[in-house]
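Supplementary Note 3. Input sequence used for the single-chain structure prediction.
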Amino acid sequence: MPEPHTQPARGRVGVLLPRDLPARDVLPYARRAEELGFEQIWAVEDLGWRGGIAQAASVLASTTDITVGIGILPAGARNVCFTAMELATLAQLHPGRLIAGIGHGMPDWMRQAGNWPASPLTLLKEYTTALRRLLRGEPGPANGRYVRCEGVVLTETPAAEAIPPVVLGVRGPRSQQAAGEVADGLLLAEPAAPAYVTASLHHLGPAPTARHPEIVTYDAAAVDDDEEAALARVRAGLEAIGEPDWAAHIDPLPFAAELRAHRAACPDGRTFARTMPAAWIRELSIAGTPGQARAAIGARHAAGATSVVLAPAGPDALASLDSLARALPHRP
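The predicted structure, written as discrete structure tokens, is reproduced below.
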């Protein structure tokens, strides 16, 4: 059994920058999130939408204090030397305000782009090891199966306290174990019920230092004085649950068997999410009244999450920021 990780300090609350937010609203959205008191904003990089590094740079330059996360950069899509240069530049210009999420990438997207390796886990481990060494100003490691940057050194790197944490956005036990070996933590970019957070922490293995690893969660979120309205609004964000590659996410749930049976009985994800019991919605999202949403955030922090990131549900993400902010710990 791995030794338990030390518990994190007070957990942080962030908000997701939706991939389909109109470009004209991206910076107003980020500035409003900072005004409302969100501590982090996470930019999504999905094939065909917007680049994560470009979004992060723009948001950092348009805000003052909010931390900006990039989640998730596919390892196969960028040469590690140039990724390190981009991240080091942002970290020097905006010290202490950047977190980098790295992952395998969605297999279908990566195959479409011609960047899916024979061994995704090998690539991710080599890539993350090299990226963190380069960000520390150390020479690149010996060339591996996929990553070749031996002896490369960045001319300028951030101060030690400003080096951005590198978290892996991965789901399966083997990939999460690899995160414990080569990264600063995990990004759980799927509904992160407390039981899933706890299981993922276990997969990381023994803590290499006394420092608690970064555990970032994404959750569909809706806050309303009418609980039923919030639950109804958040259902669309749960349609993908139950897909074949979600076993690692589903297994820790106390209702895993019932969820699988229900998904198998439904013709599609929309029907599945629309007919899911309300108790499951409460567990798999941040939804309900401000007090209920605050409790759901607290449960994830108690399970080990260092950052709980709210993904706004509904057609108007910019307008929903004010309601989501009512779930922040310091709000009434």
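The longest strand covers residues 214-223. Residues 12-227+290-325 form a domain with the TIM Barrel fold (CATH 3.20.20.30).
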